[in-house]
Automatic annotation (TrEMBL):
Transmembrane segments: 20-40, 60-78, 85-105, 111-132, 144-162, 174-193, 205-224, 236-252, 273-294, 306-327, 339-358, 364-390, 402-422, 442-461
Major localisation: membrane
Record keywords: Membrane, Transmembrane, Transmembrane helix
Record's bilayer topology term: Multi-pass membrane protein
Source species taxonomy: Bacteria, Pseudomonadati, Pseudomonadota, Betaproteobacteria, Burkholderiales
Major facilitator superfamily (MFS) profile domain: residues covered: 20-468
CDD domains per UniProt: MFS_LmrB_MDR_like (cd17503)
Subcellular locations according to the entry: Membrane
GO cellular component, one term: plasma membrane
Protein name: MFS transporter
Gene3D superfamilies: MFS general substrate transporter like domains, Multidrug resistance protein D
A Pfam family reported for this protein in Swiss-Prot or TrEMBL: MFS_1
One GO MF term attached to the UniProt entry: transmembrane transporter activity
Domain of life of the organism encoding this protein: Bacteria
């Protein structure tokens, strides 16, 4: 299919679009789950490799940093080689790397396999979203985005308990072997239903932009991670922040001036996209901190075992799924602006409410708070992700998807680091160290996280009342009542 055909095609549902949405949702789930499921398997993996459990953080860090580096080139790759070619290749690389992860016997080999897996994941996420955006008309975008965004909410919640179950009753290697049947099915469906659309096959590769963005992402993410550690080297943190800041400024200037930048900043001129990237990023940082803090609070602060802790956090998952049933009617009734502002405040308060939890709090009460948080964060997450592309023209979808995925990955990584930093602030205020963390330290951490979520609402006030009306159908709902 030529680029002219793709851009002039009427905005209608393409054959197999529902299958494409489900396929992309499945691959997103596989990719997001892989980033969190190994957390509870690290002790067993460390014994297999003959290393200290703390050293296993290399496997997680290598994967996340690789995602941050290679996501920006996903748009160029899709434009240059075609959607089906890149998406299918990404699934193949991710699946093959999963097999390598499962068969490694040393930590360096495992880290190398995780880097390869990260390259596949970096291509899989934004290109898969792009396939959905190009196959779905504007009036069907709400439903499609709601389906493909649930993995980002669900995977961090069910990953740790699922990983704990697998490692307890089997071997950690099955965590990676499970990706093989999903990957093979994904490859077959990609070949059958995804068009090999190329928007600009002659687009040049922006090597300078790729290097600058990669340096900025890696140094800033790694610096944030170091700040959250108790043995952080502050001179190293300062050097990384300085390097990342300089690289960030240089990359911003380069991307604005380059004729064909690796990440197109033009979509930021669209108000709805800019707001979703601004305030939306702050919100994602807040909700990404919760899955990190909750298991620690339940196990370290409340003295629960890993399995009970995992079961309790499933209340968040239940809230996520329950909200999916009413997301579209709520958006159609109230519109993006009102939902994002009101629900954003509710979501922030639900995070702050976790500061009230204590070891003596009944588990039912804890589950109710987590369920309510799951409801509000699911609605906010879906609304923000849908608003991001509500007014983006088809011609700019590739650049918008790459930029959105880059910021998404950055904010998810920053969210975990922000949770660790917030916990350290709580320890400092109460005079505790890492070996004597108390429940009150987590109370401070959740108050800080809730404040971050509340700050995200400020940027949403800039939205016009009819923001994204074509996608939400809010205006149609108002006219039908007249």
């Amino acid at each position: 299919m030529s680029s002219s055909t793709a851009s002039s095609e009427p905005d209608r549902t393409k054959p197999g679009s529902s299958i494409i949405v489900m396929l992309v949702a499945a691959t997103f789930f596989m990719e997001n789950l892989d980033g969190t499921i190994i957390a509870t398997a690290l002790p067993q993996m460390a014994r297999s490799f003959g290393v200290h459990p703390a050293d296993m953080s290399l496997g997680i860090t290598a994967y996340l940093l690789t995602l941050a580096v290679f996501i920006p080139i996903s748009g160029w790759a899709a434009d240059r080689f075609g959607l089906r070619t890149v998406f299918g290749s990404a699934i193949a690389v991710f699946t093959a790397a999963s097999v390598l992860c499962a068969t490694t016997s040393t930590l360096p080999a495992f880290a190398a396999a995780r880097v390869l897996q990260g390259i596949g994941g970096a291509m899989m996420v934004p290109v898969g979203r792009l396939a959905v955006l190009r196959a779905t008309p504007k009036d069907g975008l709400m439903r499609a985005i709601a389906i493909i965004t649930w993995p980002g909410l669900v995977a961090p919640v069910i990953g740790p308990p699922l990983g704990g179950f697998i490692t307890t009753y089997s071997s950690w290697r099955w965590i990676f072997y499970l990706n093989v049947p999903l990957g093979l099915i994904g490859l077959l469906l990609t070949w059958r239903f995804v068009d090999n659309v190329r928007e600009d096959a002659q687009r040049r590769f922006d090597f300078a932009g790729f290097v600058l963005c990669g340096i900025a992402c890696v140094t800033l993410l790694y610096a944030m991670e170091l700040v959250g550690r108790n043995d952080a080297s502050w001179p190293l943190v300062g050097a990384l922040v300085a390097m990342g800041g300089v690289a960030g400024v240089l990359s911003w200037r380069h991307l604005r001036r380059a004729a064909q930048p690796v990440v197109d900043l033009a979509p930021l001129k669209i108000q709805t996209f800019a707001v979703a990237m601004g305030g939306g990023s702050l919100f994602r940082i807040a909700i990404s901190a919760a899955p990190f803090l909750l298991p620690l609070m339940f196990q370290v602060g409340f003295g629960m075992n890993a399995f009970d802790s995992g079961l309790l956090t499933l209340a968040v998952f239940a809230g996520n799924l329950s909200m999916k049933i009413v997301t579209t009617p709520v958006m159609r009734r109230f519109g993006f602006r009102r939902v994002l502002i009101v629900n954003g405040v509710i979501a922030a308060l639900s995070l702050a409410a976790m500061a009230l939890l204590a070891p003596s709090t009944p588990k039912l009460a804890i589950a109710v708070v987590l369920f309510a948080s799951g409801l509000s964060r699911s609605l906010q997450f879906t609304a923000l992700n849908t608003l991001s592309f509500a007014d983006v023209p088809k011609a700019q979808m590739s650049g918008a998807s790459a930029l959105s995925s880059t910021l998404f990955q950055m904010t998810m990584g920053v969210g975990v680091a922000a949770g660790a930093i917030a916990l350290r602030i709580g320890e400092w205020l109460h005079g505790h160290d890492a070996h004597s963390i108390a429940p009150e330290d987590f109370s401070v951490a959740f108050l800080i996280v809730g404040f971050i979520g509340l700050a995200a609402v400020i940027d949403l006030l800039r939205l016009p009342k009819d923001a994204g009306a074509l996608v939400s159908g809010h205006g149609k709902a108002d006219r039908s009542r007249r």
